[in-house]
Each structure stands twice: as C-alpha cells, then as structure tokens.
Amino acid sequence: MRINGSERQFPGGIPQTLTELLEHMGINQATVVAEIDGKIVERRCFAQTQLSNGQTWELVRFVGGGELHGQADNHLERL
Cβ(39)–Cβ(47) under 8 Å? Predict the structure, then answer.
C-alpha cells in the first residue's frame, strides 16, 4: 500500500478500514483529509472504507500557524 508516495508495510497485516489505519498511525480522523486512488473519502465513510493492497492513499491535514509577511501562514501537511 502506498501512503503519501511511500510504500508502507504492515507486518501484522493491512488494517481493514481507513479508521483502523488512522488509529494504527496515531492520527485523529477528525483532523485529516483522505484520498484513495485520486478520490476524496468523506470522513463519515472512514469506518466503512475498506483497504487493500495496490491502493494509493494520500493523507493530509490543515495546519495553521501564525503569520508570514502580514498574511496567515496556513498550509496542508502530508502525514
């Protein structure tokens, strides 16, 4: 499984759902946007979204932080 461009291995087996993956990674699902094979997954569907080998996942979260040159310095962070 590829997550944010990197191949990830799960010695105990791939988590079955997106919720399980986020728990395994220690990520609060309320703070993340998930995309599978180019399609955004709605947060309300995380627990029902099945994972499988060969999928490509992008996990990002919005990060706000201070001000840069008089403007808010907000950005997305890949997890």
Answer: no
Which class for 76: exposed (0-12), middle (13-18), buried (19 or more C-beta within 10 A)? exposed
Contacts for 22 with CB less than 8 Å, ≥ 6 apart: 28, 29, 32, 46, 59
* Mean pLDDT comparison of 2-6, 17-21, 70-74, highest-scoring range: 17-21
Q: What is the pTM of this model?
A: 0.77
